[in-house]
Amino acid sequence: MKNNSYFPLKFENDYLIFIDQTKLPLQENYISTDDYNRIAEAIERLEIRGAPLIGIAAAYACALAFKNKNEKDDNYFNKVYNRLASTRPTAVNLFYALKEIEKVYSSIDDINIYEYLLLTAHKIFSDEEKFSEKIAKNGLNIFLKRSNVLTHCNTGALATAGFGTAFAIVKNAFDHQLINHVYVDETRPLLQGLRLTAFELEKNEIPFTVQTDSSAAVLMQEGKIDLVITGADRIALNGDSANKIGTYNLAILCNFHNIPFYIAAPSTTIDRTIATGAEIAIEFRSSKELLFVGDKQIGKESYHCFCPAFDVTPSHLIRGIITEEGVFSFPYNFIR
Ligand code: MRU
Questions:
Q1: Which of 110, 123, 251, 298 lies in disulfide reach of 313, CB 3.0 to 4.6 Å?
Q2: Is the bond into 266 cis (omega within 30 degrees of 0)?
Q3: How many whole angstroms separate alpha carbon 336 and alpha carbon 318?
Q4: To test the ligand 1 pocket, which listed residue (95, 131, 155, 190) has its Cβ within 8 A of the most ligand atoms?
Q5: Cα 215 from Cα 150, distance rounded (Å)
Q6: Partners of 326 in the beta sheet?
């Protein structure tokens, strides 16, 4: 697959350069920093977002925290680790990456801490790139014909390394003439579908339509959707999957209309410490994200708002989970 003209982040000359996703699609602004706290803020503000990308960014942040330090300092390491771990609770990739960094930090002596942590961050990045490529290949197996696909949130190059998860499947399927049209949920309240997935589909010249989240049912009723593919932020051992709020609605709609509902995610999104989705910590975000569209206030600040960033789709509603290892189907059992 041809490389994109944009990138979510890259490491160059001892700085992390990332695209500010809050400004897309209208502005393509890149920010350069070597400050781990600035990277933590970027994750909190969703300048950097998407489960695998959060993990990659956190790993680079830990490395950069040691750029000018020549000796180990456990208190400082714990401070950096905890700052990054506190940014977003749901995507398990963040904690996977931090644990990989911690393992390396604990195993090395005083010298070259920065170089070792950096190598670990580079490896996490390149592993995710390889997983994305394999997910894209495995995902071809779910297409029985040239299809109309609906997706939710953003799962493309902006959310991972490589071409993404669900998005990488769509792109690969399109390249194999298996995609007719892509329907993109706008993804309220932060509009990752309207702003980011539409941006990526346009850049990749894949035909698409954006609709309000509440239009998915009518599209299905009219027979316009052949399958739905989304990403995930954390998958329990039984296959219950947390993803952007609204994903559970889609899974119910798919089951009602007998449309296959698939999740695509790398194995780094599987949390092997939890049996079911009941144990997934769901992030709640500020009511401002509901009351404002961009900078424009549309609701009164006195309104009580319900603002979960994610929901959990029970595994029996998921036709298949596509990882770099293959396509799994219900009943899921990810214990190894
Ligand atoms: O709040 P976000 O934008 O970080 O949420 C992202 C999602 O829910 C994605 O669907 C998920 O991380 C999968 S990305 C490969």
A1: 251
A2: no
A3: 21
A4: 155
A5: 11
A6: 323
Q: What is the mean pLDDT of each run of 10 residues along the chain (336 residues)?
A: 83 98 97 98 98 98 94 96 98 97 93 95 98 98 98 98 97 98 98 98 98 98 98 98 98 98 97 97 97 95 98 98 97 82
For the annotated catalytic residues, the residue numbers are: 233
In a domain, 239, yes or no: yes
DSSP code, position 54: H
Kindly list the distances between the CA atom of residue 254 and the CA atoms of 76, 171, 221, 262, 277, in Å, as whole numbers in the listed order.
Answer: 48, 22, 10, 10, 20
Containing domain of residue 170, as a range? 134-328
Q: pTM of this prediction?
A: 0.96
Residues that constitute the known binding site for substrate: 49-51, 88, 192, 243-244
State how far the alpha carbon of 141 is from the alpha carbons of 35, 135, 176, 196, 267, in Å: 43, 10, 12, 26, 18
How big is the CA angle at 284 (ends 297 and 252), to the nearest 5 degrees?
Answer: 100
Cα 150–Cα 154–Cα 158 angle in degrees, nearest 5: 140
**Amino acid present at 7:** F
Quote the number of domains for the chain.
2
CA-closest candidate to residue 42, choices 31, 51, 52, 26: 31
For ligand 1, is residue 268 a contact (CB within 6 Å)? no
Question: Per the annotation, where are the binding residues?
Answer: 49-51, 88, 192, 243-244
Cα–ligand 1 centroid distance for 260 (angstroms): 20
Q: Is the CB of 160 under 6 A from ligand 1?
A: yes
The CATH number for 296's domain is 3.40.50.10470
Confirm whether the ipTM is greater than 0.85.
yes
Which residue, 118, 133, 148, sits at the end of a domain? Answer: 133
What's the sign of the alpha-carbon dihedral 248, 308, 19, 126? negative
